[in-house]
Amino acid sequence: MGFYADHVFPYLMDWTMGTRRFRELRQQSLAAAKGSVLEIGFGTGLNLPHYPATVTDLTVIDPAVLLPKKVLTRLAATSIPIHVTHVNAERLPFENCLFDCVVSTWTLCTIPNAVAALREVRRVLKPDGAYLFLEHGRSDDAGVAAWQDRLNPLQQKLGCGCNLNRPIDALVRKAGLHVHHLERFVFSGVPRIVGEMYRGTATAARAESA
Ligand SMILES: C[S@@+](CC[C@H](N)C(=O)[O-])C[C@H]1O[C@@H](n2cnc3c(N)ncnc32)[C@H](O)[C@@H]1O
User: DSSP of 53-105, one letter per residue?
Assistant: First the structure.
């Protein structure tokens, strides 16, 4: 992967995404997680302290092995049984309808084929399960979106594959998931091109109206 991707970016990511404001958002989004949970794009395990006691077991996947010592410490501090697998979200090695809940935080920006990954999320979710997402993406403001498009090639390099301009809710719907709840807000304290947040819940089945 290269020196920057292997030895610099993981520390930068862990540091910038572990601040108080990020922790608050993680806590709020994960409060609804319950039962058997799958997290895609686990990263350095920054979500681990925020899973509530309603989670019975946790499976986490990420193709990368990032800051392994730090991850081991975080895993050891968690009382929930955890299974870690290093695979791509585009092809999950799990049977259909297995999980009560699937979680992604700031990951759909980076997965090369986000729609393929979301189709997998849909496949592995139980019919009454929930997909909880907290992501950054494309702005609804045309001026901001234009800057996101302009700076996306640079961001892909600096952010090791991260895209600024993905329309997250449209991708979730394109994969056949049903969005039941969607909040859009701007994360203060970071440049707006990276601060356009999408927080929501989707399901595999169209049980309740969106
Ligand atoms: C910006 S980081 C976010 C990490 C973590 N979700 C968090 O909230 O701190 C994006 C993560 O997506 C992971 N990723 C990249 N390609 C992926 C893929 N094909 N499937 C699953 N995860 C992937 C990266 O390795 C990285 O850990």
Answer: TTEEEEEEE-SS--SHHHHHHHHHT--S-EEEE---TTS--S-TT-EEEEEEE
Tens of pLDDT along the chain (210 residues) come to 689 999 999 999 999 999 999 999 999 999 999 999 999 999 999 999 999 999 999 999 999 999 999 999 999 999 999 999 999 999 999 999 999 999 999 999 999 999 999 999 999 999 999 999 999 999 999 999 999 999 999 999 999 999 999 999 999 999 999 999 999 999 988 899 999 999 999 999 875 444
CA-closest candidate to residue 82, choices 130, 48, 117: 48
Atom 4 (ligand 1) nearest CA: 43
Cα 198 to chain center, whole Å?
Answer: 11
Atom of ligand 1 nearest to the CA of 117: 20
Residues within 6 Å of ligand 1 by CB: 13, 17, 40-41, 43, 46-47, 62-64, 66, 88-90, 105-107, 110-112, 117, 162
| pTM for the whole structure | 0.96
Q: Domains in the chain, ordered, with CATH?
A: 3-203 (3.40.50.150)
